[in-house]
Design a protein that fits this description.
β1, α2 and β2 form a beta-alpha-beta unit. The strands form 9 sheets. Strands 11, 12, 13, 14, 15, 16 and 17 form a 7-stranded mixed sheet that branches. This protein has a 5-stranded parallel sheet with strand order 2-1-25-26-10. Helix content is about 35%, strand content about 20%. By secondary structure, it is α/β, with parallel strands linked by helices. The site of ligand ANZ has 17 residues, from β12 and β16.
Length: about 775
């Protein structure tokens, strides 16, 4: 037999699988004759953005879930494992700018190249269902969904404090600001007040929090998302103000948010945020120079910087507030430890019970009251009777700012008429196509480059027919990806984003793989969009992803994050050339628990490669004329169970070890055709090309191994498994018996006593028996 040559066989089988379309999923339950279908099963890995090249992380993301996809197919499920490209958005556009090309050209070129690379993985992708978010047939529905949300008031435009990235020259959502920096380019983000399009995600804040209970997600992912939404139960309490210099009437108040209404009698100050102070200044409060300067300098600081400051700072405003509980007058201070965009932007300070307030009071010599706590009921009743407070829930979550002042995105389908204001683009004329634009780079004035597409810009107002202009902002790319999984169920539909009958067959999704960084971005947005569509009656379910698995990260051989500058980047193309796709896939599976990832080891992959060579060479041991071998059968039976449980439990690494152990055990035996076939089927999900080559070319089977049924194991055979039991007398080995696994102490003792060799050494009575199940029995005399 020839040498194992993956580069030769892998391409060949990839072509064969594609021509035979064996991974194209039909909507109706599978009718493959050999398989009784167990039903539809959609599993998905987050689609990639066309960055240019597949890195090893992509391989980890896509080829490992493919093991499960293949196993489920062999079990008889009608499996859909689609993929596509998240091709609009900042990352693609920035990369294009860096490479001095146009985003459209760049993106399309990369999609073509990466598709080729993805195909070299030998995964079970159904390419007939591919979606790409830049396809007008796709973004037509992104725009349509926007319009539906707009109709119901879930999309709106308002002036708001926004994160502005000066480098990318666009607004970012809160989720896209990591430690005060732009998630895309790492630049320090600035705060601005701008009018933007927003989605009312906060309307679903409770559902997004509460519905997580029923989801099978990693606990850390649930906690992170819950904290991000940050529901807080408390009360809003109103403090009337005594006097404000420069203000005419005396009817002013400040509202505070507290989670500790029971501490109301211990309030010794009201503290407002610099943001709120600025609003007071804007409406005519004549603040002292000191206060004005303090507000100004605070506002130039980042929120994080303010929160992490070692020392509390602040200025007395000179204004007094009246505690509604006891009519006591307390000073109003402005201090930057109070955040402008949380709660009401003002607090009641209770130094006796709150750490931050205590630091503040200590620094500025404010009194610390020893008033006793009251019961929350008592306090709430008092406040409600006076109309000075009510229970309130607040959230850390803000509405999702979705407009971007960038070219490479789906245009927001709105029209601005000087007479009628904002008007939606009529549904029938969707999509609003992105106009070709040579000068697509972001502008310094904060206006979208689409303003330069003068012909495209001019449009008739759909309401009055007068001259109007199109909205020039495009949508955040997370809008595109918030619904793409729906489209896989019905990718060619011209009338709907997906037919309800089709969605019913596949969704909600049983299993979704992705990166941990998406917990507070994509996963949150997609859950919101589904809840919004559900509330509009457009989908039948309110949670898209029943089970979620965040994969680990592949590190460089030096145990560090891979990066060009460190020179520790592993290029999958090179590894595939050297060892073949099967070895790369199998090594990635073998590396460690999927949820942990780990460092790439050159020794590790060559070890897996040697194993595949051994499988290849083992074929020489198979002989047409060999009869079924009960020992080999028992070994295979046990391994089938082990490997099946490993795959089902996502323990792919132990699955590979089980395969290795299996080969070790089999290598000392000759096996029949049947047994050899079983071995190949167990190998098929892990090393699909090698298994196919041996299956069709050596065993001369006519159909693909990937259409075969997964081997069944016999539980009875497992319990009849034999082990070697060591028999000792007074701690010295006197015999070894091959016995049934799982013997009771009684049975073991009976067998031990029957051994001739043991009998010879048994002088006297057995006083004690020490029995270690399936290993040792020691008779003490
Ligand atoms: C009085 C009090 C007494 C408070 C006490 C706490 C303990 P969470 O759970 O995070 O919602 N707070 C309210 N708005 C704030 C803002 N904009 N910036 C900074 N702090 C703010 O925390 C709610 C508590 O954080 C509120 O309850 C308030 O302080 C403070 F013994 O009110 B508390
Ligand atoms: Zn009009």
């Amino acid at each position: 037999m020839s040498k194992y040559n993956p580069s030769k066989i892998e391409k060949k089988w990839q072509r064969y699988w594609a021509t035979k379309k064996i991974y194209n999923t039909k909507d109706e339950p599978s009718s493959r004759e050999a398989l009784a279908s167990l039903g539809n099963y959609m599993l998905l890995t987050e689609f990639a953005y066309p960055s240019g090249n597949l890195h090893i992380g992509h391989w980890y993301a896509f080829s490992i879930p493919d093991i499960l996809a293949r196993y489920l197919r062999m079990m008889g499920y009608n499996v859909m494992y689609p993929t596509g490209f998240d091709a609009f958005g900042l990352p693609a556009e920035n990369a294009a700018i860096k490479n001095n090309t146009h985003p459209e050209k760049w993106t399309k070129k990369n999609i073509a190249y990466m598709t080729k690379q993805l195909k070299s993985m030998g995964a079970t992708f159904d390419w007939s269902r591919e979606v790409s978010t830049i396809d007008p047939d796709y973004y037509k529905w992104t725009q349509w969904i926007f319009l539906k949300l707009y109709e119901k008031g879930l999309a709106y435009r308002a002036k708001t404090a926004v994160n502005w990235c000066p480098k990318d020259k666009t607004v970012l959502a809160n989720e896209q600001v990591i430690d005060g920096k732009c998630d895309r380019c790492g630049t320090q983000v600035e705060q601005k007040e701008l009018s933007q399009w927003m989605f009312k995600i906060t309307q679903f804040a409770d559902a997004l929090t509460d519905d997580m209970v029923g989801l099978d997600w990693q606990e850390t992912a649930k906690i992170n998302q819950k904290n991000w939404i940050g529901r807080s139960e408390g009360a809003k309490i109103k403090f009337n103000l005594v006097d404000i210099p420069g203000q005419k009437d005396g009817k002013h108040f400040v509202e505070t948010f507290t989670t500790r209404a029971d501490t109301l009698f211990g309030v010794t100050a009201v503290v407002i945020s610099p943001e709120l102070a600025q609003r007071w200044i804007d409406v005519g409060w004549q603040a002292s120079e000191e206060a004005k300067n303090y507000v100004k300098s605070s506002l130039s600081k980042r929120e994080l910087e303010r929160q992490e400051a070692k020392e509390k700072t602040g200025v007395d405003t000179g204004i007094l507030a009246i505690n509604p509980a006891n009519d006591e007058k307390v000073p109003v201070w402005v201090a930057d430890y109070v955040l402008g965009h949380y709660g009401t932007g003002a607090i009641m300070a209770v130094p006796a019970h709150d750490e931050r307030d205590r630091e503040f009071a200590t620094k500025f010599n404010l009194p610390i009251s020893d008033a006793p706590l009251r019961s929350v009921n008592e306090v709430m009743k008092l406040l409600m009777d006076k109309g000075a407070g009510k229970p309130e829930r607040i959230y850390r979550l803000h509405d999702w700012i979705l407009s971007r002042q960038r070219y490479w995105g789906a245009p927001i389908p709105m029209i601005i008429c000087p007479k009628c204001g904002y008007q939606p683009v009529p549904e029938q004329v969707l999509p609003v196509k992105l106009p070709p634009l040579k000068d697509f780079k972001p502008a310094d004035d904060g206006r979208s480059p689409l303003a330069k597409a003068t012909k495209w810009l001019k449009v008739k107002c759909p309401k009055c027919g007068g001259e109007a202009e199109r909205e020039t902002d495009t949508m955040d790319t997370f809008v595109d990806s918030s619904w793409y999984f729906l489209r896989y169920t019905d990718p060619k539909n011209k009338k709907e984003f997906a037919g309800k009958d089709k969605m019913k067959m596949w969704l909600p999704m049983p299993l979704y793989y992705g990166g941990a960084e998406h917990t507070t971005m994509h996963l949150l947005y997609a859950r919101f969009i589904i809840k919004a569509l559900h509330s509009l009656g457009l989908v039948d379910f309110s949670e898209p992803f029943l089970r979620r698995i965040n994969r680990g990260i592949i590190l460089g051989p030096d145990n560090q994050k891979m990066s060009k500058s460190r020179g520790n980047v592993v290029d999958p193309d090179i590894e595939v050339k050297k060892y073949g796709a099967d070895a790369v896939r199998m090594y990635l599976a073998f590396m460690g628990p999927y949820e942990q990832g780990g460092p790439w080891s050159p020794g590790g992959i060559s070890g897996v490669y040697r194993f595949l060579n051994r499988v290849w060479n083992y074929v020489g041991r198979y002989d047409q004329n060999i009869r079924p071998n009960p020992v080999a059968q028992r070994i295979l039976n046990k391994s089938t169970k082990e490997i099946e449980e490993d795959i089902k439990g996502m323990s792919f690494n132990t699955g590979v070890s089980s395969l290795m152990k299996l080969l070790n055990e089999l290598e000392s035996h000759e096996i029949s055709k049947d047994e050899y076939e079983t071995l190949l089927k167990l190998l098929a999900p892990f090393a699909p090309h090698l298994a196919e080559e041996l299956w069709q070319n050596v065993l001369k089977n006519k159909k693909s191994i990937h259409l075969e049924r997964w081997p069944e194991y016999d539980d009875k055979l497992l319990s009849e498994e034999k082990i070697k039991l060591v028999i000792q007398v007074n701690g010295r080995v006197r015999d070894t018996l091959e016995v049934k696994k799982g013997l009771s102490e009684e049975e073991a003792k009976r067998l031990a006593l029957a051994s001739e060799n043991v009998k010879r050494h048994l002088i006297g009575e057995v006083k004690k028996v020490i029995y270690v199940k399936d290993r040792i029995i020691n008779l003490v005399i």
